Amino acid sequence: MSDQVAHFIGGVPVAEGEVFAGHDPVTGREVRRIHEADRSVVDRAVAAARSALPGWSGLPVAERAAWMRRLADAIEERFEDLVAAEIADTGKSITQTRTLDIPRGAANFRSFAEIAAQRPEDAFHLTDVVSYTVRRPLGVVAVIVPWNLPFLLATWKIGPALVAGNTVVVKPSEHTPGSMAVLAGIAASIGLPPGVLNVVNGFGPGSTGQFLVEHPGVDAVTFTGESRTGSAIMKSVADRVKPVSFELGGKNAGVVFADADLEAAVEGGVRSVFTNGGQVCLCTERLYVERPVFGEFVARLAGRARELTFGRPRDEHTTMMPMISAEHRDKVLSYYALAKEEGAEIHAGGGVPSFGDDRDGGYYVEPTVLTGLPPGSRVNREEVFGPVCHVAPFDSEAEAVALANDSEYGLAATVWTSSLSRAHRVAQSLQAGLVWVNTWYLRDLRTPFGGVKLSGIGREGGTHSLDFYSEPTTITIKLE
Ligand code: NAD
Ligand code: 6OD
In sequence order, what DSSP letters do the residues of 6-26 get, joined into one string? Predict the structure, then answer.
């Protein structure tokens, strides 16, 4: 990957605007310079998207779906370039990048191509009247995404937005522009019509992100990121009443009953707390464990946390990655310090690993397991977005549900039990957009994805995405 990251506008790279430094999270070293799109660059990107709109939205859906399949094929051909870009930006392990992040990007384009191409229109027949709907794209859609799963999350929005007939301007996170730069090159190489997919780089407030969402030529905003950023974007677009789809933060709970397969629950806990360094919106930060198995669960989870390995990203045995930035590492460490102040017992981690090599300049923190904090403590209420969870005991199903629901957030939850009836009962009582039973982050791309409370607005996934990225017009015809 080039060490200068440009924008991509109207089918060509545009290296304009001030440059800022990008760092390798593994060592903290500056490894690239990224151009920041100012208002005039954002104007050009939006204008390119608008001028491509009539041609793109005028294609039959089957043709747009064919373009999505071509993009998926080309992603598979450039697989290792995308893996390299994603690792360079995030420091995540090659094993995860090859099995999750990049394959999901290709799957996002393929699955939305199938869903859109096969989707029927609505039609309703009364005795002398027939009503039917036609769906039209929203127009130019701003796609604003975070740094934790950069390629997966961007393509999860770009795929359905494009197949529904919109054109897009994507703003990746300032920390992770690399994989979108590769995708832009892929789009150009397969001849995707210029202006259909545009990418602008920069920061959020007072910079590219804000200029983009406020732009009068942008018709809708799809955003994944922090809840307070969602709130800021909502204010920016309020005057124009632009449609928004928000996937926001979480403080996800896991509930482990004494009748669960404890080995599976511990392994599920390890995955759901520590995957991607805990930097997945779906990660569990609060675990509630039924008292008879509480002690054993905590000891086993803490033991497994200590076994996680901080190898380099290209070492296939690496299981712990760095935090994305020095700022984010300091935020996570401030919660480790706060947990101590609030009186937590630390069963694993709580600090910074020491390597004796250049990784000491990187943004690593130890995977951490805490107990002993009351439900109202800040560590139990605020999203940390790092490799840490607090574990608390419970004595009844009702108490477990009340504890899990005691949060301003409501994105995801996990339930571990061998009782089928309890699984249904508890899953249906949890205030979350997604509940996994005896598993975690198993995804069917057709299902609705999103959160309740501070965790978001709307659902994406399958036809839910196509519903957001298009608007129906109902046409009613009198037959007699
Ligand atoms: P963030 O909200 O700081 O930034 C996300 C994106 O928004 C970045 O591209 C940023 O530059 C941009 N941005 C920031 N302020 C903006 C503004 N005022 N106007 C326009 N754009 C703006 O989030 P982050 O730190 O990159 O990611 C971590 C957060 O994302 C966590 O809270 C996490 O829970 C959340 N997240 C949620 C989901 C989900 O599906 N619910 C998925 C991934 C991450
Ligand atoms: O898997 C997905 O489709 C998805 N939207 C994941 C979100 C993860 C958040 O960090």
Answer: -EEETTEEE--S-EEEEE-TT
